[in-house]
Amino acid sequence: MKEMAPSVPIHLASGLEDGSIGTDVTRILDAIEAVDKEALILSDIGSATMNAELAVDMYEGEKTVQFYDGPIVESAFVASVSAGNGMDVAQIVEQLKMA
Amino acid sequence: MLTIEGFKQALRHAQSEIEANKDTLTDLDRAIGDGDHGINMSRGFEAVVAVLDDDYATLGDLSKKVGMTLMSKVGGAAGPLYGSAFVKAAPKFGDATEADFNLVKEALVEAATAIKARGKSEVGQKTMVDVWDPFLNDLNESDDFDAKLDQLVGATEGMVATKGRASYFGENSRGTVDPGALSSSIVLKAIMKEVE
Fold it and tell me: What CATH number did the domain enclosing A76 receive?
């Protein structure tokens, strides 16, 4: 994805602080803090999804944050390319629904 | 009455019981899940015990801290579920430094509501909700809490899972006790013991 859409910032918020497998909602929130204005969150598996939904509920800032529940590889691909083409989160989600 | 020190003791007790049952929780989760519930709960509650050395002015403060800790440290779906439970219970405890049976029950009902909302689940799907909800329903101070919890955990064995990782097993999820139900009974037993 970095090759397909080099200008699109991609933040990983997977795993726990010590590197072990799992999801930590504070790492997702940190990743949201790191983006400029809008964030689209994708997840790979059920427990990650629940953590992502929790992060969206907990987020109290001004940025546009949305979670999309789709197959991660395809969704990440479509989202990166769409973002690289200048689409905003709302438009990207529409693209994802059609993919 | 549940005091701040009592709540801390309950959490320490829950942690040691989780450690003692870690392999069972893992085995149950391996049968109808992804095999990480024991490890996750162990890690989460170890982190909780670590924060108990701090001072908390109110039961609400302590409950919120426990919730936030579990949210980050558990790692699986149980993190947001147990985490939201304790965070949602916190405002009900509020500024109280001790809670009688009724207040504890009300706080736990808030916790159960949070679990159902976060997990988008309800009774009958073979999840931890099948312990939290019926346990609190009609709960009286004179009840045998441990017996009621044991019975509810046992009842999950014959259920088919329609929510969570176990639901992928379909009919094959029948015949195994739900791991989240077991860990819930451990946590609830520990808390109720300190209320007496």
Answer: 3.40.50.510
Asked if B81's CB is within 8 angstroms of A50's CB, the reply is yes
Q: Of B72, B18, B73, which Cα lies nearest the Cα of B44?
A: B73
Whether A49 maps to a domain, the answer reads yes
- Give yes or no for B31 touching A (CB within 8 A): no
Q: What is the span of the domain harbouring residue A89?
A: 25-98
| Domain B2-195, architecture per CATH | Alpha Horseshoe (1.25)
Please state the domain count of chain A. Answer: 1
Q: Which amino acid is at B170?
A: G
Mean pLDDT (10-residue bins), chain B, 196 residues: 97 98 96 94 98 98 97 94 97 97 98 97 97 96 97 97 92 95 98 94
CB B75 within 8 A of CB B43: yes
* Domain boundaries, given as residue ranges, for chain B: 2-195
Residue pair B10/B1 in contact (Cβ under 8 Å)? The answer is no
| Contacts with A, B 103-122, CB within 8 Å | 118-119
Whether A16 is covered by a domain: the verdict is: no
ipTM of the complex model: 0.86
Q: In this structure, is residue A15 part of a structural domain?
A: no
Half-sphere exposure of B177 (CA within 13 A, CB side): 21
Please tell me which of the candidates B76, B83, B119 has its beta carbon nearest to residue A22.
B76
Q: Which residue has the tokens 């899940």?
A: B33
Nearest CA in chain B to A16: B75
